[in-house]
Write a structure and sequence with these properties.
MetI-like fold; MetI-like_sf; ABC transporter permease; 235 residues; mainly alpha
């Protein structure tokens, strides 16, 4: 096992030189998490908008469930997806287990409730401001949803970035359904766990550095979007 100083020096050299294995793992991580975020937004944003404007019996209970799903245990999600995609499961015929597609499904299930719950809160507050205007214009529910999504676009981008940050840092679910297979399903978080257990601290630290940079980039993007939204509000 390398000393801390040696491991950190080797990690920096791997990042600067663009080590092939490192680049492959990083790009797979980004691809899986980006696709999962897009799918989660396609599900969560309309769902959040509809719940924000609708009033029906059982709505409070639904909100409780939606908020509770934000804290879904990743290993439980991974287990449920595994059971469905395994050969004996109902979707086993698709052959998706231990593929990037299975990891995308697991991440989508994890972050869709986050996107739905956060967007619901944003859009419900906005709907409260415009409710009278919407009624005076006699807009349909679909038109109201469309108007809310567009008007809250900057806040919803922040929601999407929060979902992406959650996805890129996920390890429990993706290691169960992906199997951490080299050159196929090995992403940054699972690779860090593996390389640390093997004692290869250089690769683990290199991946950790990249993951931290991505996390900082996501937070910087969130702040940028918020500043842009604030400037737009004052125009």
């Amino acid at each position: 096992m390398q000393s801390m100083g040696e491991a950190f020096g080797l990690a920096l050299s791997l990042v600067i030189s663009g080590d092939a294995d490192l680049v492959e793992i990083v790009f797979l991580s980004l691809r899986v998490s980006l696709i999962a975020t897009i799918l989660a937004c396609a599900i969560g944003l309309p769902l959040g908008a509809l719940i924000a404007i609708a009033r029906f019996r059982g709505r409070h209970a639904l909100l409780v469930v939606m908020n509770a799903l934000m804290g879904l245990p990743p290993v439980v999600v991974g287990l449920l997806v595994y059971l469905h995609l395994s050969r004996s499961g109902p979707l086993g015929f698709l052959g998706l287990l231990y593929t990037p597609s299975a990891m995308i499904i697991a991440q989508t299930i994890l972050i869709a409730p986050i996107v739905a719950a956060l967007s619901r809160q944003v859009l419900e507050d906005l709907h409260g401001e415009y409710a009278e205007q919407f009624r005076s214009l006699c807009l349909s529910r679909a038109q109201i949803v469309q108007a809310l999504l567009w008007d809250a676009r900057f806040s919803l981008i922040t929601v999407a970035l929060a979902g992406f940050g959650r996805a890129i840092a996920e390890v429990g679910a993706v290691i169960i359904v992906g199997g951490n297979i080299d050159h196929l399903t090995r992403v940054m978080t699972t690779a860090i766990a593996l390389e640390t257990s093997k004692g290869d601290l250089a690769m683990a630290l290199a991946l950790g550095i990249v993951l931290l940079v991505i996390a900082l980039g996501v937070n910087a993007a969130v702040q940028s979007v918020r500043l842009t939204a604030a400037r737009q509000a004052h125009v």
